Amino acid sequence: KLPSDSFKYLGWCDIEEHDVRGNQLHCPRVREGPSKEELFFREEHTLRKRKPVTDTEKWQKKLQENWENCAELNLSFQDLGDLYQVENFKRILQRLIRVEKLWLVDNSLTDLRAIRLPRCRELNVNKNHFTSFKQLPKVPQIQHLSLAENNIMTLSGISDFRHTPLESLILKRNPCEFQERYRQLVFSSLPNLKMLDGIPKLPEDCSPPDIRFLFRVCTIL
Q1: For residues 35 and 14, what is the distance between their CA atoms, to the nearest angstrom?
Q2: What sections of the protein cross the membrane (predicted)?
Q3: Radius of gyration of the chain (CA)
Q4: What is the distance of C-alpha 182 from the center of its chain?
């Protein structure tokens, strides 16, 4: 039996009235929105009973989520296959103004450049579909960044992190890992980096000027 076997008969439900706030949830789920048939069914049967949502009720719901006060959040494995999920997911990310540790593993993400996480120190976006450093969210305070198992082809754009306090970077199982002089290029672009792919900065990762020059010289014998 799997560890989750005892939960196989349980389902998700929407609890409308509760006292749990967003910053008290460490692993919330963005679920799939209702189908068109279900929406039509609801419209037909609840149109007369439905009360208009006031601005006060909308504001109370926003306060109930309280994403602005989240300091540590795991939004991994969301299975974002529906447009409703993607839009709601990005709406939550835009409100994470105080988050310091954020996990977004295996969400099929491709572009988060419109997202800004001003206090994020640790970001894990492993197993997504990023192809460039330019597609990552803005993280001016980042210290630990994990990008393993994406599709980053080149190191173009990595210098954008030069003025951040980035100390640890993981790029395992990305195509750029097979680039010639990969480690030297990364450390030359990020002088403050201390660890790459779990390996501390080594003397050979800092090639002296004369050795770097030899890579640009073609010797014909």
Answers
A1: 16
A2: none
A3: 23
A4: 24
Write out the DSSP string of 187-214: HHH-TT--EETTEE--GGGS--HHHHHH
Q: Where are the chain's structural domains? A: 1-65, 67-220
pLDDT of 209 reads 44
Q: State the burial class of residue 1 (Cβ atoms within 10 Å of its Cβ: 0-12, 13-18, 19+).
A: exposed
Which tokens is 61 given?
A: 């719901």
* pTM, to two decimals: 0.73
Cβ(67)–Cβ(95) below 8 Å: yes
Q: What is the largest CA-CA distance in the chain?
A: 89
- Do residues 195 and 167 lie in contact, with contact meaning Cβ atoms separated by under 8 Å? yes
Residue type, 76: S
Do 104 and 126 form a contact (C-beta atoms < 8 A)?
A: no
Beta bridge partners of 110: none
Quote the CATH superfamily of domain 67-220.
Ribonuclease Inhibitor (3.80.10.10)
